[in-house]
Structures are given as structure tokens and as C-alpha cells.
Design goal:
The complex is a heterotetramer. In chain A, 33% of the residues lie in helices and 19% in strands. Chain A is built from seven helices and twelve strands. Classes of the chains: A alpha+beta, B mainly alpha, C mainly alpha, D mainly alpha. Chains A and B meet through helix 1, helix 2, strand 7 and strand 9 of A and helix 3, helix 5, helix 8, helix 9 and helix 10 of B.
């Protein structure tokens, strides 16, 4: 009870910058608060009413003074805004080549998953010094993945992926909270993030019973659900190939272009006709809504990512480069 | 003594004690029906005063439950379910049934017609309808409480409130809907009265600043409240009939519900703070015995706050999946809306310069308000800063910030206004020293309760937590101690106000020797306020005639 | 009848109202006519502007805004303006999300140029069989 | 401050000069009363605009997110019936305006006739709505109530369209029912010869409310009915 810290420990690359901004704002606020408290105190004492009938002199309104004490605070706030926006962008822009981790919020537990396939409940082991990109979603209500020590938080919204990243810089065990009210055990939906030395992390990863990796699980699902029959490697199937498409632009049938990121892949699995690839009008693909769990979707998406060779970034390898298959069945079922 | 010698003038012998008018609006007619079916704006003020005080007590009761539970890290006083229902009822009772109507429905109802020089509001029957809407909403809210309460918080976020929550969500939604409708009708009445029923000679810039604040508040009440009404109806339909407005399976987006909800709910917090700012201007002018410095700027800053408050709500959604660019737009606009509030505080301080400040109870409340409103305002800047809000959103820092504004500033100024106009409303004087003591007690209790929560907030303690990690316990204990002191502070005025009703001395028309139309009529005023329509031919607060801008 | 109240109401003639009614009928028919043609995005713009003009006609004539004091017009306008504020501010969030894609894709060096010719990647949609809906 | 001094218990001399019937005491004169009631009505209508605005906002966001589903679903609506309904409602707006005009002239007999005409047209409108709603129930197009849609791809968008179709037209129909109730009240008042050139405020406000409900439908018709019209029939 008595060993109560007054400041959270800073254990991520961004924590220092957020704290610096915090202290800047504390300083500015303290300055203005003391200025106003002292001013009020002094005026209260100095101009105390002594004589009932004394009428203080009228005051001339001074436009310049009004403009000054509006514009100066506004410029100070612009500084706060700019500094805050820069940090906001950095926190919500995962760097390239970050280690992909997944988290699925479910009413009152966090299911985290490593790319190597190991799954944890309310626990997250991460190596120190590595950029970690979290791709998160929820199976029911809105939760919020919040690690105070890393100064980072992002709501998870049903029906889409939200991402955030952090780079742990200090080994240790830190709190993991759910910050968005999600029902009965909202306060029970907590856990801990273990930041470990890379060697210890590898040992821990090896030690734990390594199930199949995400990609392998994704591949198994990919074949079991019959995706492989259409989406063939060399584009012979009735559907576009999925080779080399991750995070590259996909020309759509209505002329727009979309980045094939996780959200696009997930949406195309659940609602195939939402964004049909150009050149493929037929709507053969059934919706898999309800047949694949959130974890399964993450695994399939992870598998599709492995189909993109990292070096094939620059070339615009639009998947439909090959001649589009003529739509075998005209029109579409009404 | 100070360099400027204050002229020593022989004070005349005290005038004979004021006599209470035989006939006034309280004893004009008697009987329950004359109260429940009244169309006199002053009587409707009393009806509202009683009903919102009851809800202040209910909200306070649930607040004490929450604070008692948080003394220990592990949730042992009550189950998580009961805790969630307690803070939800605390939120709903306080926001919809006390803070939104607090000043507009009581001091506003009483003073707007009198300050305008009118006999009554433009639509007296609609004024009574507004109270009955409040009562229907109150019945629904109490029904919610007795049906086991609701555990969605006062924000009703979907999909939890529409599909996963169990509890009387639909009744709570109806309660909030009718309370909102009552607020719309009050706003409508004020706008038409201020526009169309001002006394001859009372131009816009001769109006007291309280009227400016009530006008700005009415704009928000009229244009904001219907949006939360439709949003709550949509949540109700999604829960009741399965219409999936925000259901992701139909392509719906829960963030749209947050957008529509906060489109009203942020201007709603300005409905809660604008009337107190108006009361503050009146208190500063009366107890510095001087016209408020920069009258035009303070008046127009109220309207500026009202308009800009409609485009800033996105700061509630910074971490909710809202686009980063929309976040930046909302962040810069949120800083913009903070400026008019700063202008007001600086102008009040400038009014005090070389003034003659007396320290009756209302002025102690005014000083307390300036302190707490400043802290509340600057902590708002923290949350408007994008980089910090990522860390602080949904933590106790947010809880502390909005309590500094809602309790520290709004209720503090409501109390100040109540102390200032109590002699006018009831014709009775209360014990002034007790008034000052209660102000200091509330100030200390309030700071002890909510300042530790800023520290807890930056430490990362999330909101609405039934149990929390052990290292947060000490600060939570301080907060709970402060809460008890705060409760005592709030009970004290109830005691000496009621005492003053029976034992208080008669207050003459102008106990504080202030300037204003309301101080020119007897207290308590007759039913028709003015026997002859007043003609206003001077500047507001003209303590020093001829000074002018 | 010399009404002593200073509100001398100019009472428009019946023909006046019937004329507006006919105009509204014509506009409604026009809306339906235009809607039957496939003008792509233009359909919505035309539909809304015609509806807006019809609404303006009803407000201006039927609801007596023509000789209403400017305050009443301001009240009418404020409703529309704040509705526009709501639509724009909520729309800018969804617009930013769909068009600008949040940071994970922002700043990528990929040629995400919406109107760049699709480098022979996709034949012009016309070549493909008529998009039978 | 005010030059007016009140003796504490001065008996309030009745200095009001003679007022036309229907005058409310809190006003100075009938002109101020008319201005105030009209302004009050317009402020109420501004609030109603924001109330329906929430629905229009939700509709436009989802329509931009799911255009295909919305167009397919909208194509199911019976446009000729909708067009007929629009004609009926604009006609009722005309009769309402003529009723207000008759009230301004103090001609209570014609006020009564035009109001009854408006009421009949309003009921016709509601009748057509009932027909349309029952048709949707038969085709299982009521969301949340075993909603069925052939084309699986557009099913979510279609259901969302019908969610907004039922809510918007339902809210509009509710306002029509309230309007019809008010019309009955005003028909009763007109039969009592209450309106004359100085006192026609209430009728004018009723007219404002009715025209507002008409304007809401003027926007609803193109947005809901004509959305998928260019896709051709039976799609």
C-alpha cells in the first residue's frame, strides 16, 4: 500500500517522447495556473472592500489587451498541437519490417499470438529492442489494447483490423489493460507484457510447445476450405492468384485501386463481392462469414503474406497481369 | 495602508430592516394543483430546484458507492456487476438529470424573464411541459434503477449496449430521451424570450452577461440535443428490434455511433459550463462592484464557445479507429475552443484590478470557481494533444479533467449562483459565514478527491475499473477520503438553506447592493414581476455611471 | 380591414400557391425522369439539388419565408447549416479512412496514383462482357 | 438603471388596452405574440432538422460505404407508388397553405374545408405507406426479422438499406400521424370560428409543421426510391 509510484516507468522508444511532451504541457499549465492563482490572491487582498460606499473607477476596454491574451495562448496551443500530432503519427505508423504480432480481444480476455504460432491468453512475451507491430481485432464488443509503460493504446473494433506498434526498450514485466469499457469483467481483462532479452525470448519460444506457425495453420485452413482449388499459383484457376499481392495495389473492377492490406484480405474472405479484382466479374466465391473464426482469418492472412516475396516490392505486379479468364458464366445469379 | 488612500466617508445610520411583501409569487395561490399546474416561471423554478436536487442526491449516493469500492484494490465491497451499474447510474443521474438542467432550469428559468424585463417566458405552458418531460424522464430513470440498473455507462456505446449488455438499457434510453426533450423545450423558450421579449431600451449589449450565456446555451440545447435523441433511438431500435444500424455484420460501424453520440455530448458539456460562466460574470461584477472588464468580449465569447463546440467532438475518438487525419483536424479545433474560456478568466481578473471586492459567500464560490476552472481548462489541453491522448484516453486523467469542469466549475458556480440569488428567490437571508465555510470545505474536499486522479491517470489506471493493481491503492484512498469531505461540503448548504427558509431574516430587494433588473423588484417578486414594463436606458452593471467603454 | 397591429400581412393569392404546387409537380416528375437514366455519380447530385430546390420553394412560399423577418430566416438557416456541419465533419473521417488510408499505407513508395493509366494491367472494362448486374 | 420604481405592494393597475381574443398575457401586443410564436416554431423546426439529420447522416455514410447493396435494395421499391405518394403529400401541402391563407382572411368556413382536405390527403399517404410496408413483410425484407436477400454479396448492404428505409419512413410516418392528430384539433377549433385576421398564429404554425414534414419526404423520395431506378426494373 505504501510503495506507491507516482510516475509510470518508460519502457518503450516512444515513452520518452510522450513524457517530454507531457512535462512541457505540465510546465505551461503550471505557469498559467500559478499566474492566475497569484493574480486572484493579490487582487483579493489588495483591493478588499474597505468602505461600503467606495465606487471603483470605470475601466476602459482595451482591444489590444484582449487580442494579445487570445493570440498568445493560441500560438502556445499550436505548438502543443504540432508536437502532439508528430508523436501521434509516429505511434500510429508501424515501421517497415516490424515483427508481426496478433491480438484478438474477446469478452474479458486478450488472446495474443506470435508469428511463430505460439498463442497466449492475457500474456505477451516480446523481445527487447525489436519493433513489434500489433494487428488486432475483437470477436464481440469494443475493447482497447493499452500498455501504460509503452504509452500506447488502440481500440479494437469488431469487423475490422486496427494496428499499432511499439519497441520495448527495457526488460521487465508491464501491465496490459483493457481501456474501453466492455462489460462485466472489464477490470478483469488485464494481463502482463514480458519484455525479455532476445536470447531468453528465443529460449522461451523454443521451450514452449511450438504448434504450427501461423502461416502453416493458415495454409492448412487454406486447403481445407477449398481456397486452393480456385486461387492457384499460376493464375490458371478461375480466381486471381494470391502470389505477390500483399500490400500492393490491386486494380478493382470499378476502376479504383486498393492496397491489399490485412483489412482488404479479411474483407474479401468475408464479403468477396465487396471489392472484386478488375477483370474477374464472376461472383463464384461464396462468403466465408461464420465459417472461419477470427483466429482462422488471421492465420489465412498470415499465410497469404508468406506468398509475397519481400523483394518484389517495387514492381507493380498487378495480379491480373496475365490475360483475365473469360467469365465462364455470364450474368450473375439474381 | 496602500498608496491610494480610500476616502473615509462617514457611513449613514443603518436603514430600517426590509419588510417582506405581503403578496408574492409563493403565496399568490396555494394548494398542490396551483404548484403542479403553474405556468409562472418562478414556480417552475422551484419545481425544478426540488427535482434536480433529488437527482443530485441520487447521483451523489452512487458516487459514494463507487468511491467506497475503490478504496481496496481487489473489488470486495460489491461484485463487478453492481459496481458497473453504480457508475452507470452515477453518470446518467448526474449528466442527464442534474448537470444539463442545473442552471438553465433553475436560475435560468427564474432570471431570464426578469432580466429581460418581461412578465414571463415567451411560452409559459411549454415551460411547464418541459418540467413534465423531465419528470417522465425521471420516472424512466428511477424505473431503470429499480429494475436492476444498466451497466453500459452513460455513453451507451454499441455493440455492448445493443447486443451484449443485460439490464434495463431501453428504459435508461427513454429516460435520457425525455430529459433531452425537456432541455430542448427550455432552450426554445429562452431563445424566443431573449429575442422577442426584451424590455424597451434593453439592446443586446445592455443585456447582463448571464443572458448572453443562457442564449448561447440555448443554441446548443436546440441544435445538439436532437442528435443524441435520434442516436439513442437507433441504439434502442438495434437492441429492441434487431435493426443493425451499427452492426458490423451488416457493414455497420460502431464508430459512427460514437460520432453521432459525441456530436451532442461534447456540446452538452458546454451546456453544463456556459451557464456557470454567465453566473461567474454576474458574481464578479456584483462583488467587485464594477462592470465586467471587456464586456463585449466576454459576451461574444459565450456565443463563440457555443458555435465552435459543434466541431470539436472528435477528441473523444482519437484512439477509437478514427482516421489519423480526422484526429488532427479535431485536435486543432479543440485547442481553438479553449481560447474563449481563457478570455473569460483573464477578463474576470482584469475586473478585479483596482476594484472593491467584498467576501460574501457567493464571492468565495467565485474565487473557488476561477481556481478549479483554470485547472480543468489546462488539463483539457493535455487531452486535446494527440500524442498524450493516446496514453491518457479512458484513464483516470480523463475522469479528473471532466470532474474538474463539471463538479469543480459547473456545480461550484451553480452553488455560487444559488447563494447569490437565494435572497431574491425566497426573500430570506442565509447565514453568510456558514456559506463561506461550505465553499472552502467543498473546495478542499474537491481537490483532495480529484487531484490524485490526475496522477493515477498518467500512471495508466483505466476508467470504470472495479478492481485495480495494488500500486494505485494509496492515491485511491486519498481520493475516497476527499470524496467524504466533499459530501459533507454539499450537505452543509442544504442545511442552512432550509434553515433560512424558516428562520432567515427578510432580505430586501437588494441585499448585495448589486445592479440589475432583478434587484429592482421586491424579493420574493410578485407573480407578474414588474407592475409597469421597465425602460432600460443605461449600460449593464453601471456602478460608476458614465464610465462606459 | 385596418388591423391596428403593425403586422399587416400581405395575403398572397390562391393562384400564387397553385403555381408553386404545379412547379413542384413538374420538378418531381423531372427528378423521376432524370433518375431513370444512368449518369453514375451525377445521379445523386442531380437528385439532391432538385430536392433542395423543391424544399427551398416550399420554405420560401408555402412557409412564408419570403416576407418573414430575417430572424426567422436565420433560424431556418441555422438548422440547415448545423446539419451540414455534422455531415461534413463525420464525412471527413470516413473520407480520410477510405481515400487516404491511415499511416500503415501512407508514405509507401508504391505508385498509388488513382488515375494513373492501369499499365495494361486491366483491359478497359468495356472489353469485358457487358457488366450484367 | 431602470427608471421604473415599484412600490412594494402596488396593486398592478390593469394598464392593458383591449386585446383581441386569443391574446396571451405575457406579451405586450398581438404583433409580438405572432412574431414570437412563429420564431418559436421555426426554432422547433431547426431542432427537427437536426433530429432527422442524424438519420440522413447515417444513411449517407453507409450509402457511400456500400453503394452496390443500397442500389440493389432500392431497386425493389415501387417507384410509381412512391411518386404517387409524393404527389399526394405535396397536394396536402397546398391545401394546408390555402387553409393558412383562409385563416389570415378570417374565413373559418374555408379553413375547415382545406384542413379536412389536408387530413384526407394525409390519410391517403399513410394508407399507401401501409400497403408498401405489408409488401415488404411478404417479401421478407424487414431487417432483423428473417431478412432474406438472394444475392449473398449484396445482402448486408441491402439489409442496411432496409434498416434505414424502415426507420426513416417510419419516423416520417410517425410525424404524419402526429400531424393528423393536430389537424383534428384545428378542425375542431376552426369549427368554433376562432380564427380572424389578428389571430391565426396556431394555424400558421400547424402549416409550418406540415410543410416541414412534406420537405422531409421531398428528400426521402429521391434518396430512398430513386437510388436504384437507373438499374432498370425487376433487377
Amino acid at each position: 500500500m505504501w510503495n506507491f509510484p507516482l510516475f509510470p516507468d518508460a519502457a518503450s522508444s516512444m515513452a520518452g517522447q510522450v513524457d517530454a511532451l507531457y512535462f512541457f504541457l505540465v510546465a505551461v499549465s503550471l505557469f498559467f495556473t500559478v499566474l492566475i492563482f497569484a493574480g486572484c490572491g493579490y487582487f483579493a487582498i489588495k483591493f478588499k472592500r474597505v468602505d461600503e460606499n467606495f465606487i471603483p473607477a470605470g475601466q476602459k476596454d482595451n482591444m489590444v489587451l484582449e487580442v494579445v491574451w487570445s493570440v498568445i495562448p493560441f500560438f502556445i496551443t499550436l505548438v502543443m498541437f504540432a508536437w502532439g500530432a508528430v508523436i501521434f503519427f509516429r505511434v500510429y505508423t508501424p515501421p517497415e519490417g516490424a515483427m508481426e504480432m496478433y491480438a484478438v480481444g474477446k469478452q474479458w480476455m486478450w488472446k495474443t499470438q506470435h508469428p511463430e504460432g505460439h498463442r497466449e491468453i492475457n500474456e505477451l512475451h516480446v523481445p527487447v529492442g525489436r519493433d513489434i507491430k500489433m494487428t488486432m481485432t475483437t470477436e464481440d464488443v469494443i475493447h482497447s489494447f493499452f500498455i501504460p509503460a509503452f504509452r500506447v493504446k488502440k481500440d479494437v473494433v469488431p469487423g475490422k483490423y486496427t494496428t499499432m506498434w511499439f519497441k520495448p526498450t527495457k526488460v521487465g514485466k508491464y501491465h496490459l489493460f483493457c481501456a474501453e469499457y466492455c462489460g462485466n469483467q472489464h477490470s478483469g481483462m488485464i494481463g502482463s507484457v514480458h519484455v525479455m532479452e532476445p536470447a531468453d525470448y528465443e529460449a522461451w519460444l523454443a521451450g514452449v510447445n511450438r504448434g504450427e506457425t501461423m502461416a502453416q495453420a493458415g495454409e492448412r485452413l487454406f486447403t481445407r476450405l477449398g481456397c486452393a482449388s480456385c486461387h492457384q499459383e499460376d493464375n490458371k484457376g478461375r480466381c486471381p492468384t494470391l502470389k505477390d499481392i500483399y500490400s500492393k495495389p490491386v486494380p478493382l473492377q470499378n476502376g479504383q485501386r486498393v492496397i491489399a492490406d490485412e483489412s482488404y484480405l479479411r474483407e474479401s474472405i468475408l464479403k468477396p463481392q465487396a471489392k472484386i479484382v478488375a477483370g474477374y466479374q464472376n461472383q463464384e466465391m461464396p462468403t466465408f462469414q461464420g465459417q472461419v473464426s477470427e483466429d482462422g482469418l488471421l492465420q489465412i492472412v498470415a499465410y497469404i503474406k508468406t506468398l509475397t516475396k519481400p523483394d518484389a516490392v517495387a514492381a507493380v505486379a498487378a495480379p491480373a497481369a496475365a490475360a483475365p479468364k473469360p467469365a465462364t458464366k455470364g450474368g450473375n445469379k439474381k | 495602508m496602500s498608496a491610494t488612500a480610500i476616502p473615509r466617508v462617514h457611513t449613514p445610520p443603518p436603514p430600517d430592516p426590509p419588510v417582506r411583501p405581503a403578496k408574492h409569487y409563493i403565496n399568490a395561490t396555494s394548494g398542490l394543483a396551483s404548484w403542479l399546474l403553474t405556468v409562472d416561471h418562478k414556480r417552475i423554478t422551484i419545481l425544478y430546484l426540488i427535482s434536480i436536487t433529488i437527482f443530485f442526491a441520487i447521483g451523489g449516493f452512487f458516487a459514494m458507492l463507487v468511491r467506497l469500492e475503490l478504496i481496496t484494490p481487489q473489488g470486495d465491497l460489491m461484485t463487478a456487476e453492481t459496481y458497473n451499474r453504480s457508475f452507470s447510474m452515477h453518470g446518467i443521474a448526474m449528466v442527464f438529470f442534474f448537470l444539463i438542467p442545473s442552471i438553465p432550469a433553475t436560475l435560468g428559468n427564474f432570471l431570464v424573464p426578469i432580466m429581460c424585463g418581461a412578465r414571463d417566458l415567451a411560452f409559459p405552458k411549454i415551460n411547464l411541459l418541459s418540467w413534465y418531460c423531465f419528470i417522465v424522464g425521471a420516472v424512466f430513470a428511477l424505473a431503470t434503477a429499480f429494475m436492476g440498473g444498466v451497466d453500459t455507462g452513460w455513453t451507451f456505446y454499441t455493440p455492448y449496449s445493443s447486443t451484449y449488455a443485460n439490464g434495463a438499457v431501453l428504459t435508461a434510453i427513454l429516460g435520457a430521451f425525455f430529459a433531452g426533450f425537456s432541455s430542448i423545450l427550455t432552450g426554445l423558450n429562452f431563445i424566443v424570450t431573449i429575442h422577442k421579449m426584451r424590455a424597451p431600451g434593453l439592446t443586446w449589449f445592455r443585456m447582463p452577461l448571464f443572458l448572453w450565456a443562457m442564449y448561447a446555451t440555448s443554441i446548443i440545447q436546440i441544435l445538439g440535443t436532437p442528435v443524441v435523441a435520434i442516436t439513442l433511438i437507433l441504439v434502442g431500435l438495434e437492441r429492441g428490434l434487431g435493426f443493425g444500424f451499427f452492426d458490423p455484420k451488416l457493414g455497420g460501424d460502431p464508430i459512427l455511433m460514437q460520432h453521432l453520440f459525441w456530436f451532442y455530448s461534447h456540446p452538452a458539456v458546454y451546456v453544463m459550463i456556459l451557464p456557470p460562466l454567465g453566473v461567474m460574470s454576474e458574481l464578479t461584477a456584483a462583488f467587485c462592484r464594477r462592470r465586467v472588464y471587456g464586456y463585449h468580449f466576454v459576451a461574444l465569447s459565450s456565443v463563440a464557445i457555443a458555435v465552435i463546440s459543434f466541431i470539436v467532438w472528435g477528441h473523444h475518438l482519437f484512439t477509437s479507429g478514427q482516421s489519423v487525419y480526422a484526429g488532427m483536424v479535431f485536435s486543432v479545433l479543440t485547442f481553438l475552443v479553449g481560447i474563449p474560456s481563457a478570455i473569460k478568466v483573464f477578463n474576470w481578473m482584469a475586473t478585479m484590478f483596482k476594484a472593491s471586492i467584498s467576501f460574501e459567500a457567493p464571492m468565495i464560490y467565485a474565487f473557488g470557481f476561477i481556481g478549479l476552472f483554470t485547472i480543468g481548462g489546462v488539463t483539457g489541453l493535455f487531452l486535446a494533444t494527440l500524442g498524450l491522448d493516446i496514453h491518457m484516453h479512458d484513464t483516470y486523467f480523463v475522469v479528473a479533467h471532466f470532474h474538474y469542469i463539471m463538479v469543480g466549475s459547473a456545480i461550484f458556480s451553480y452553488m455560487g449562483g444559488l447563494h447569490y440569488w437565494w435572497p431574491k428567490i425566497t426573500g430570506k437571508l442565509y447565514n453568510d459565514t456558514l456559506g463561506c465555510i461550505s465553499a472552502v470545505l467543498i473546495f478542499l474536499g474537491f481537490n483532495a478527491t480529484f487531484f490524485p486522479q490526475f496522477i493515477l491517470g498518467y500512471m495508466g489506471m483505466p476508467r470504470r475499473y472495479h478492481a485495480y493493481p495494488a500500486e494505485f491503492q494509496f492515491l485511491n484512498i486519498c481520493s475516497s477520503l476527499g470524496a467524504t469531505l466533499l459530501a459533507v461540503g454539499y450537505v452543509l448548504p442544504a442545511i442552512y438553506f432550509t434553515w433560512s427558509l424558516f428562520k432567515g431574516k427578510d432580505a430586501g430587494p437588494n441585499p448585495f447592493k448589486a445592479k440589475g433588473l432583478e434587484w429592482e423588484i421586491p424579493s420574493p417578486p410578485p407573480t407578474e414581476n414588474f407592475t409597469k414594463v421597465p425602460v432600460v436606458n443605461s449600460e449593464p452593471y453601471d456602478y460608476a455611471p458614465g464610465a462606459g467603454h | 380591414m385596418a388591423s391596428h397591429s403593425q403586422h399587416e400581412h400581405h395575403v398572397p393569392s390562391v393562384a400564387h400557391y397553385v403555381g408553386v404546387f404545379l412547379a413542384l409537380m413538374v420538378l418531381t416528375a423531372a427528378t423521376v425522369g432524370v433518375a431513370s437514366m444512368d449518369l453514375g455519380r451525377l445521379n445523386t447530385i442531380v437528385a439532391l439539388s432538385v430536392a433542395g430546390f423543391k424544399a427551398f420553394l416550399v420554405m420560401y412560399i408555402f412557409m412564408e419565408l419570403r416576407h418573414a423577418p430575417s430572424l426567422t430566416r436565420l433560424a431556418a438557416l441555422s438548422g440547415v447549416v448545423f446539419l451540414a456541419i455534422m455531415l461534413i465533419m463525420i464525412g471527413q473521417d470516413y473520407g480520410a479512412r477510405t481515400v487516404l488510408h491511415d499511416p500503415p499505407n501512407w508514405g509507401k513508395t508504391l505508385p498509388i496514383d488513382q488515375n494513373a493509366p492501369a499499365a495494361a494491367a486491366t483491359p478497359a472494362p468495356a472489353a469485358a462482357p457487358a457488366p450484367a448486374h | 438603471m431602470a427608471t421604473h420604481a415599484t412600490t412594494p405592494n402596488a396593486h398592478s393597475d390593469d394598464h392593458h388596452h383591449a386585446h383581441p381574443p386569443g391574446f396571451a398575457h405575457q406579451f405586450e401586443d398581438i404583433g409580438q405574440q405572432l412574431d414570437s410564436t412563429t420564431l418559436g416554431m421555426w426554432v422547433f423546426l431547426a431542432q427537427e432538422i437536426m433530429f432527422f439529420g442524424g438519420l440522413f447522416c447515417g444513411y449517407s455514410i453507409y450509402r457511400s460505404l456500400m453503394p452496390a447493396g443500397f442500389e440493389a435494395a432500392s431497386n425493389h421499391l415501387n417507384v410509381p407508388l412512391g411518386f404517387a405518394n409524393t404527389v399526394v403529400l405535396i397536394a396536402s401541402s397546398l391545401t394546408m397553405a390555402l387553409a393558412v391563407r383562409a385563416a389570415m382572411l378570417g374565413d373559418n368556413k374555408w379553413v375547415l374545408r382545406w384542413l379536412v382536405g389536408t387530413l384526407i390527403l394525409g390519410c391517403m399517404f399513410l394508407g399507401v405507406k401501409i400497403i408498401e410496408y405489408s409488401d415488404k413483410f411478404e417479401h421478407h425484407l424487414v431487417p432483423g426479422y428473417n431478412f432474406q436477400w438472394a444475392n449473398a454479396a449484396e445482402a448486408p448492404g441491402a439489409q442496411m438499406f432496409y434498416v434505414f428505409y424502415f426507420t426513416m419512413t417510419g419516423m416520417h410516418a410517425l410525424h404524419m400521424v402526429i400531424g393528423a392528430g393536430l389537424l383534428l384539433y384545428f378542425i375542431y377549433k376552426a369549427s368554433k370560428n376562432t380564427y380572424h385576421p389578428q389571430y391565426f398564429g396556431p394555424i400558421e404554425n400547424m402549416g409550418l409543421y406540415w410543410h416541414f414534414v412534406d420537405i422531409v419526404w421531398i428528400f426521402l423520395f429521391p434518396l430512398l426510391y430513386l437510388l436504384g431506378y437507373h438499374l432498370g426494373k425487376g433487377h
